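Worked example

This section walks through a single chain of length 113. The input is the sequence exactly as stored; nothing has been trimmed or padded.
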Amino acid sequence: QEHLVESGGGLVRPGESLRLSCVASGSDFSISAMGWYRQAPGNERELIAQITSDGITLYADSVEGRFTASRDNAKNTLYLQMNNLQPEDTGVYYCKQYFGGFWGRGTQVTVSS
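Given that input, the structure is written out below as tokens.
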């Protein structure tokens, strides 16, 4: 059984929005900080957003003001609201649970006109 499963990716045009979800199957989600990472074609995986167990967030400069990470501990779910998407946001998006070091398999986001 996969510990983390991402969903919500897709193909959108510049300026549009997507909301990613990451559902955790373990009982330790609520006590763990979580991260959203992005891997663009030919690039290394990069951290774009972090959220602590009690909801404090931190963002990479490249997404600050456009992306919002949130979580619902009752649903074991992490979210990433992405607004005003641009072609440079294209990539595979992964969630990570820091407690235990779990990764999801990723969801593809493509931004193209």
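What to look for: The chain has a mean pLDDT of 96.
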